[in-house]
Amino acid sequence: MNDDIVPSAVAGTVTPRGVHAYLAAHGWTRTGPYRIDRGDVYRRSGDRETVLVPASTRFADYPIRILQLAEIVGRTEERRTSAVLADLSLAAVDLIRVRLPRTYDDHSLALDTGVDLLSGSRKLLLAAACSALRPQRLFRAGRHERASTYLAGVRLGPTEPGSFVVNLRVTVSPSLAEPDQIDLFAPPFERRANRTLVAGLRAAREATDLVNRGDHIRAFDQRVPEGVSANLCTAAAELIDVGGGLEVSVSWALTRPASEERGEQRATVTFQPPDAPVLREAARILSDRQERIDERIEGYVSALARDQSEPDGRATIKAVIDGALTSVKADFSPSEYSTITRAHDNRWSVSLEGDLRREGHRWHLSNPRDLTVMDDIDP
C-alpha cells in the first residue's frame, strides 16, 4: 500500500452506503453478492479489477477491507489512495467550501482574518438555516432553535491549498428512494438548509447584478423567498471585505443524489470586492423593512389623536428602539384608547406588545396587545 494512506481509523468511519454511492457515481457496477451476506462485488466498466464492499461495519476486518478497496480504486482511477479514502469518508456529507482569494504568498491568513472567516462562515450558514425555516428579511438572535441545532452539527474539516479554503461538513441522512426514481419524500432539514444557502447566495448574486444595471432594492426584496436576507447579505459583505472577494461552493452528499439541485454535483457562487457595498446597503434596507413579530416596547405616551367619528384612536409612544429614543405610532380599540389616554394624562409609562415595523423614517406598532400601565397604583 502507499505510504500516504490515511490511518485505518478514518477508513473505519466510511459507511457501506457511502462506498456504494461513490462506486455507482464513478462508473463501477455491482456484479453480485459476496458469500451471500458478507458483501458485494463491484467491477468498473472495461476494467478487470474488482472490489469487495463489506456489508457491515460490524465485521472485525472492516477498516482493512476499506483500505484495500481504496487502494484498488485509486490504482484504477489513477488517484492517490488517501484521496479516494477522503472522498469515501465524505460520501454522506454535504461539503461547503468557503474560499477567500486574498492571502499571503504562502496561502496563509492573518490570525484576525482567519477568525473573521470562521465567524462570517457561521453567519452565512445560520442565515440560510433560518430562511429554510421561514424566509424573511431579517432574523433576530436567539429565536430559531432548529437553525441553531443545525449549526451545532456542522463540522470544520481540514483546510486545503488554493488561496484559503474553509471546509464545512454537514452530514445528511441518505435517500431511501428506489433507484432511478425521483425522491418524493421531504429532504432532511440539513439538506434544506444547504440548498437554501446556495439558492440565497445565487439570488443575492443576481440581485447585485441587477442593482449594478440600475435596478433598486426590489431586486433583493423580491428574492427573500429564495433565501436572501439582511443576515445573509451582511455575512457575505463581511467575508468579501476581509478576503478581497468570496467563493462559496457546495458539493452534495453522494448518498443523497443531487437531482433536486439542478442536477449539479457541485454548485458555486462568487462575489467580487465591488459587490460588498451593494450587499451592505441591501442588508440595511431589508433590516428596516422587516416586521418584528411579538416585540415588547416600554415608554410614555407623548401624543393622542382620534377622529370624532371613529371609535378607535391613535397614540404616539416614546420608546427606545435599537438604542435610540424613537416615536412609535399605534392604533387602539376604544377600551385600550381609554387606558392610553389615562396614562397620557397622568404621565404614566406603559408597556405593550405588538408587531413592530418601520415605514420610511417612522415606526408603527400593529396588533397592540398586553397593554400595561406601569405607574398606575390605583387599587
What attributes characterize this protein structure?
single chain; 379 residues; alpha+beta; OB fold (Dihydrolipoamide Acetyltransferase, E2P); 3 domains; five-stranded antiparallel sheet; five-stranded mixed beta barrel; 11 helices; elongated; disordered N terminus
Describe the protein in words.
The protein has 379 residues and is of the alpha+beta class. It folds into 3 domains: 82 residues; 197 residues, no CATH class; 82 residues, Beta Barrel (OB fold (Dihydrolipoamide Acetyltransferase, E2P)). The chain contains 11 helices and 13 strands. The strands form 3 sheets. The chain has a 5-stranded antiparallel β-sheet. It has a 5-stranded mixed barrel with strand order 9-10-11-13-12. β2 and β3 form a beta hairpin. The N terminus is likely disordered.
Biggest sheet overview: 5 strands, antiparallel
Structural class by helix and strand composition: alpha+beta
Report the strand count: 13
H/I helix tally: 11
- The low-confidence parts are 1-6
Please identify the oligomeric state.
Answer: single chain
Provide the domain count: 3
Radius of gyration: 28 Å
Q: If strands are numbered along the chain, what order do they take across the biggest sheet?
A: 5-6-4-7-8
> What average pLDDT do the residues reach?
88
* Sequence of secondary-structure elements: HHEEEHHEHHEEHHHEEHEEEHEE
